[in-house]
Amino acid sequence: MQKKQSSLSRILGYAGGHKMLTLLGCILSALSAVLGLIPYVCVWLAARNVLESWPGPFGVSNLSRWGWTAVWTAIASIVLYFAALMSTHIAAFRTARNIRRAAMAHVLKLPLGFFTGNLSGRLRKLIDDNAGLTEDLLAHKLPDLAGTIVTPIAAIAMLFLFDWKMGLLCLLTMVLALLSMCLMMGGKNAGFFHRYQKEIERMSGEAVEYVRGIPVVKMFQQTVYSFKAFYAAIRDYSNLASQYAMSCRVGQTCFLTFINGAFALLIPAALLLASGSDIKTVLVNFIFYALFAPACGQMINRIMYMSEAVMEADEAVGRLDEILDQKPMEESKVQKRPANAAVSFDHVTFTYPGADRPALDNVSFSVRPGQVTALVGPSGGGKTTAASLIPRFWDADSGTVSIGGVNVREMNTEDLMRHVAFVFQDTRLFKESLLENIRAARPDASREEVLAAAHAAQCDDILGKMPQGLDTVVGTKGIYLSGGEQQRIALARAILKDAPIVVLDEATAFADPENEHQIQKAFEALTRNKTVLMIAHRLSTVQDADSIIVLSNGRVVEQGSHKSLLALHGIYAAMWEDYRRSAQWKVGKEDAV
Question: Rounded distance, CA 85 to CA 99, Å?
Answer without folding.
Answer: 20
